[in-house]
Specification:
Belongs to the RlpA family. It comes from Flavobacterium aurantiibacter. Keywords: Signal. This is RlpA-like protein double-psi beta-barrel domain-containing protein. The protein has 125 residues and is of the alpha/beta class. The chain has a single domain, classed as Barwin-like endoglucanases. It contains two helices and six strands. Strands 1-5-2-4-3-6 form a six-stranded mixed beta barrel. A hairpin with a 5-residue loop joins strand 3 and strand 4. The longest helix has 25 residues.
């Protein structure tokens, strides 16, 4: 009876851990995405969603994702992450996947002097 309980417990653990890994892969939008941040000249301007852009808010621009979509952006170099909301269209540079507000960028980068970084992007909702 005791060995049966052990087998059941191990099976449940594998099932739970397996589902968790599968779920995070499903939510991965892009790995090794190139991201940057908005220039200061955008402060106070209207975004494509109609909101006013503020560098202090955790927002981002993406070409096709619905406004209001929440993303988790993870810097692949240091593992730091930030959650942002899509409020605008862009970036204009084709090689880039996202433009982040400066405060969001600084949550995952050491400074803005690097300009761009590689990140994994996960859709939260």
């Amino acid at each position: 009876m005791r060995s049966w309980q052990c087998v059941l417990a191990c099976s449940l653990a594998l099932l739970l851990f397996g589902c968790g890994a599968s779920k995070s892969k499903q939510n991965l939008l892009k790995s090794q995405a190139e991201i940057s941040f908005y220039a200061d000249s955008f402060e106070g301007k209207r975004t494509a969603s109609g909101s006013t852009f503020r560098q202090r808010e955790k927002t981002a621009a993406h070409r096709t994702l619905a406004f209001g979509t929440k993303l988790k952006v993870v810097n692949t170099k240091n593992g730091k992450s930030v959650v942002v909301t899509i409020t605008d269209r862009g970036p204009s540079k084709k090689s880039r996947e996202l433009d982040l507000s400066k405060s969001a960028f600084l949550e995952i980068a050491e400074s803005t002097s690097i300009g761009i970084l590689k990140a994994e992007i996960y859709i939260i909702n």
